[in-house]
Amino acid sequence: MASIAASASISLQARPRQLAIAARQVKSFSNGRRSSLSFNLRQLPTRLTVSCAAKPETVDKVCAVVRKQLSLKEADEITAATKFAALGADSLDTVEIVMGLEEEFGIEMAEEKAQSIATVEQAAALIEELLFEKAK
Amino acid sequence: MRIRVMSQLQRSLSIELPSLVPLQLPSRMETHLWFIRPDEVKSTSLLKHYSQLLSPTEKEKVLQMRGDELKKNALLARTLVRTTIARYQTNNEVDPKALMFKKNMYGKPEVDWQNYTNCNNPPLHFNISHTDSLIACGVTVHVPVGIDVEDKERKIKHDILAFAERFYSADEVKFLSTLPDPEVQRKEFIKLWTLKEAYVKALGKGFSAAPFNTFTIQSKVGTKGEYNLCKMTEMTASSLEETNKCDGEWKFSLLELDDSHYAAICIEDDEASGGAPMRVIVRKTIPFVEDELISESKLL
């Protein structure tokens, strides 16, 4: 009897939303002997939704654009959670920041979305969404 | 003309602030424009009094601002709104601290009169705008108002025409590209920005209701308005056929404030005005301390 070592070990990480398991019939297995298992377990890539935090590199690039636009000093702290308004950005600044981000990432943001981003994190998330769409 | 409501002695002794001097309501088609220069408000005891007028939410927002200058400006903006509106209540004395505010369904702030059962409360509309060095508040009755102020010397970090092509309407881009001098182009760009912002803010429906590239603002041929203190030009808005979201006509006014800022005002046109231009009364103020009438002028 042939023993089939099915790779049945599936390591689950903390965040994955879905684990898809494919099942398919095994028609024959070496020398025509029947296998004791009629299907194989195969691990498909886990599917993650976009609600995860934006990549640190994206956040850093957004911070750099914002720093430049608002002429922030080195000492001025800016993180993912920072609100543009709290840094003194008005609507003209926000639009200029959007233009800076469009240039930096090679994307185009719809005006309504652009006017609605209020934090570094939101900008980064929108950018990643647009990059993802673009890559499709 | 200055009206000092606190004597020199009172101020130096930091005595309790006097009550606010009441104001005459704006008439129809008239806008009252109030502004503060933050660098003229230095007294820490005065600022402390101001902070006592704010609601807990407002205080929290002030504290979220990064750095003392931004905190101070945020405080002054709320103080300007509260004290100015409180002063227009000629029927009963209104405590600026007691005023409540709410947002319309698109997020535009407005006065919440629920606490006042007196039906004689005038239908006041207001809108504020601020820059680093100037905070302004426009007030009207019966008609919605939007204002925007910008420092005349504000530098745009991007190429002006590229910026305009991205955000402004085709006609506005055309207009800007006819200007040979880059400095003139920059100034006209800023003027257009304030006018467009004022319009969107007057509409009060958020930016998606009137994306900048869907409407054009241009100066009305044959109008003039050069005054000593505030230069004004009358503007009209024409929206493209596609956007039928605008209700009625809108009136514009563009002025220079204090030689340093452009201020654009947009109000909904009242048909009763018969096409007459907007009248703007500009006053510089330090709440509880003094008002200075800058101009009282009519547009042609």
From TrEMBL, chain A:
Keywords (A to Z) from UniProt: Chloroplast, Fatty acid biosynthesis, Fatty acid metabolism, Lipid biosynthesis, Lipid metabolism, Phosphopantetheine, Phosphoprotein, Plastid, Transit peptide
Domain of life of the source: Eukaryota
Keyword match Chloroplast: yes
MF annotations from Gene Ontology: acyl carrier activity; phosphopantetheine binding
UniProt entry tagged with the keyword Secreted: no
Compartments, as annotated in UniProt: Plastid, Chloroplast
Pfam entry (one): PP-binding
Main location: plastid
Domain Carrier, first and last residues per copy: 56-131
Assigned GO CC terms: chloroplast
Family of the protein in this entry: Belongs to the acyl carrier protein (ACP) family.
NCBIfam families: acyl_carrier (TIGR00517)
PANTHER family given in the database record: ACYL CARRIER PROTEIN, ACYL CARRIER PROTEIN 2, CHLOROPLASTIC-RELATED
Physiological role: Carrier of the growing fatty acid chain in fatty acid biosynthesis.
Record protein name field: Acyl carrier protein
Organism, scientific name: Arabidopsis thaliana x Arabidopsis arenosa
Automatic annotation (TrEMBL), chain B:
One GO term (biological process): lysine biosynthetic process via aminoadipic acid
InterPro entries listed in its UniProt record: 4-PPantetheinyl_Trfase_dom, 4-PPantetheinyl_Trfase_dom_sf, AASDHPPT_N, P-Pant_transferase_sf
Organism domain of life: Eukaryota
Signal sequence, renumbered to the chain: none
Protein name stated in the entry: holo-[acyl-carrier-protein] synthase
GO MF annotation terms: holo-[acyl-carrier-protein] synthase activity; magnesium ion binding
GO cellular component: cytosol; mitochondrion
Positions of the 4'-phosphopantetheinyl transferase domain: 144-248
Keywords, in A-Z order: Transferase
Ranges where the 4'-phosphopantetheinyl transferase N-terminal domain occurs: 47-136
EC number in record: 2.7.8.7
